[in-house]
C-alpha cells in the first residue's frame, strides 16, 4: 500500500478532496492517506499557510494530492503553488486536455498535452522598483531547465506514441530568453527524428488553437505561456473543471486540480470534483495502479454520458455528493 500526502486546500478544496477520497476508497485504490488542512483558514489559526508537519509528510511520502489554495491578487503572500513547485523542484507541469464525447462542447476529439516548464521564467517572482513610475520583472530562462522539460516532452511522445511536438515561444521579440529555449528545442529535436517537430509564436498558437486545434498533439513551452495555453486548451474540452494536472520533479510529484478555490460557491455543496479526480487518476497511473485509474475514468464517463446527475458547472442540477454517489454506483 502506498501512503500519499493530501492537502485539502481552502474554498471548495475540502469538499472536492473528501469527494475524491471517497471515490478512491470505493474503487479500492491501494492507498493510505496523511491528510492536512492548508490555506487561509489554517493561517488564521496557526500563522502558517502550510503547517510544517504537512511539508514533512510530503517530503517523506514523495507524492502529494493537492486541492486548490486561495492566493490573494496583487497583495499578500506569493502563490503557494509556485512556492511548492520551487521548493521541491517540480520542474515539469503536465496538463492533458482530452475531449469527453459525452459532454456537449463546441470542439470534438481534442487530445492535446501541454508540457510547461515549472520553475523559472517570470514565475521566479523577482520584481524591482526602479522609481515611482517604473517596475521591472525578471524573466529567467536557463539551459538546464529548458533542456529537461523539452527532453521530457520528447520522451513522453515516444512512450505514448504521440507523433508531433510543438515548441511555443516569443523568440521574435525575446531573442535572448525565448531564443535560448527555441534553440535548445531545435537541438534536442535532432535526437528524435521519428517525432515531427515544429515551433509557433505564442500569439499565433492561441489563434491556431481556436481555429484548428486538431493540428496540435503535444506542446512544450516556458512557464508563463504554459499557464495561459493550458487554460485555453481546457476551454476546448469544457473548462478547468475537467482538466487534470501533475507537477513532477526528479524526486517528488504533486497532482492537483488546475482551477481555483472558488470561494463564491464554497460550502454550497455544488462543486465539481472531476478535475481533482482525474488528477488522482494520473497519480494512480504513475503509481502503477492503472486498472483502478481506468475503472474510475470509465465510471465518470458513464455519468457524463447519461447526463442525469451533473453539477451546475456541467449544466446539471445535482449536488457534489449526488454526483459522487452516481460515480460510485457505476464503479
Automatic annotation (TrEMBL):
Entry-linked InterPro entries: IsoCit/isopropylmalate_DH_CS (IPR019818), IsoPropMal-DH-like_dom (IPR024084)
Span of domain Isopropylmalate dehydrogenase-like: 3-327
A Pfam short name: Iso_dh
Biological process (GO), any one: isocitrate metabolic process
UniProt entry tagged with the keyword Oxidoreductase: yes
UniProt family annotation: Belongs to the isocitrate and isopropylmalate dehydrogenases family.
Name of this protein: Isocitrate dehydrogenase
Originating organism: Faecalitalea cylindroides
Amino acid at each position: 500500500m502506498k501512503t500519499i500526502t493530501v492537502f485539502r486546500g481552502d474554498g471548495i478544496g475540502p469538499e472536492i478532496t473528501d469527494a475524491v477520497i471517497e471515490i478512491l476508497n470505493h474503487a479500492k485504490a491501494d492507498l493510505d492517506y496523511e491528510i492536512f488542512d492548508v490555506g487561509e483558514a489554517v493561517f488564521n489559526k496557526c500563522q502558517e499557510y502550510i503547517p510544517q508537519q504537512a511539508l514533512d509528510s510530503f517530503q517523506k511520502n514523495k507524492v502529494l494530492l493537492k486541492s486548490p489554495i486561495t492566493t490573494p491578487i496583487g497583495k499578500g503572500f506569493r502563490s503557494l503553488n509556485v512556492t511548492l513547485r520551487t521548493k521541491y523542484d517540480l520542474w515539469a507541469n503536465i496538463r492533458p486536455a482530452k475531449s469527453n464525447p459525452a459532454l456537449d462542447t463546441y470542439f470534438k476529439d481534442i487530445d492535446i498535452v501541454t508540457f510547461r516548464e515549472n520553475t523559472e521564467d517570470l514565475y521566479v517572482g523577482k520584481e524591482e522598483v526602479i522609481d515611482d513610475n517604473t517596475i521591472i520583472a525578471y524573466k529567467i530562462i536557463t539551459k538546464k531547465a529548458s533542456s529537461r522539460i523539452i527532453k521530457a516532452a520528447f520522451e513522453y511522445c515516444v512512450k505514448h506514441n504521440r507523433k508531433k511536438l510543438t515548441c511555443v515561444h516569443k523568440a521574435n521579440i525575446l531573442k535572448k530568453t525565448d531564443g535560448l529555449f527555441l534553440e535548445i528545442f531545435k537541438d534536442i529535436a535532432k535526437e528524435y527524428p521519428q517525432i515531427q517537430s515544429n515551433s509557433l509564436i505564442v500569439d499565433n498558437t492561441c489563434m491556431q488553437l481556436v481555429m484548428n486545434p486538431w493540428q496540435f498533439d503535444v506542446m512544450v513551452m516556458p512557464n508563463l505561456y504554459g499557464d495561459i495555453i493550458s487554460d485555453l486548451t481546457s476551454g476546448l474540452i469544457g473548462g478547468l473543471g475537467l482538466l487534470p494536472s501533475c507537477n513532477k520533479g526528479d524526486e517528488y510529484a504533486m497532482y492537483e486540480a488546475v482551477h481555483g478555490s472558488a470561494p463564491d460557491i464554497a460550502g454550497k455543496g455544488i462543486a465539481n470534483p472531476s478535475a481533482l479526480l482525474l488528477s488522482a487518476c494520473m497519480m494512480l497511473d504513475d503509481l502503477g495502479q492503472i486498472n483502478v485509474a481506468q475503472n474510475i475514468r470509465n465510471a465518470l464517463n458513464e455519468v457524463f454520458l447519461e447526463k442525469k446527475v451533473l453539477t451546475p458547472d456541467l449544466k446539471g442540477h445535482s449536488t457534489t455528493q449526488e454526483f459522487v454517489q452516481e460515480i460510485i454506483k457505476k464503479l
